[in-house]
Specification:
About 5% of the residues lie in helices and about 40% in strands. By secondary structure, it is mainly β. The N terminus is likely disordered.
Length: about 160
């Protein structure tokens, strides 16, 4: 980040140089999630409530659409209760000529939990839920607007 004319390099410094009399960067701790309540650091009496707080989407639980492509690593799966699924022929057969594929056993029952190496794995336009809502005990940066009449949560610290 480049320094502005005042020599400030922090987000707080940059924002305060834009309108120093009406904007203030504060720090607070989430003391309640529902309803959202944030207590300002160094001021136990200053607690802001959700009707005064603007929370950006990235600090909430939200749904979005994503593409997922396997880069490196593996995918662990838990198949159906029966463990039924298909595999490419490995060249090994049982006495009846059926392809052999071994799963792990736990006691006398077959476990369906196992790993497969994947060369390619893609999911396109998948629905995903992001659980990123503010949690009790988290410290946040808050932008005070209009002399403390509204507050915008910038991000977690």
């Amino acid at each position: 980040m480049n320094k502005d004319a005042a020599g400030q390099t922090s987000l707080k410094g940059i924002i305060q140089t834009l309108s120093p009399t009406e904007l203030e960067i504060l720090q607070g701790v989430v003391i309640s999630e529902a309803p959202l309540r944030i207590q300002m650091l160094n001021d136990n009496k200053h607690v802001i409530t959700e009707n005064l707080i603007i929370v950006p989407r990235h600090l909430t639980d939200y749904h979005t659409v994503v593409d997922i492509e396997l880069a490196e690593g593996r995918i662990d799966s838990n198949t159906t209760t029966s463990g039924g699924h298909t595999h490419p022929y490995s060249g090994t057969t049982d006495p009846d000529g059926d392809p052999i594929h071994t799963h792990y056993y736990s006691g006398t029952t077959q476990s369906s939990s196992h790993s497969h190496d994947m060369d390619d794995f893609n999911i396109y336009r998948a629905n995903m839920t992001v659980y990123n809502a503010l949690k009790e005990g988290e410290t946040v940066h808050i932008l005070s607007l209009n002399g403390g009449k509204r507050y915008y949560v910038l991000d977690r610290i």
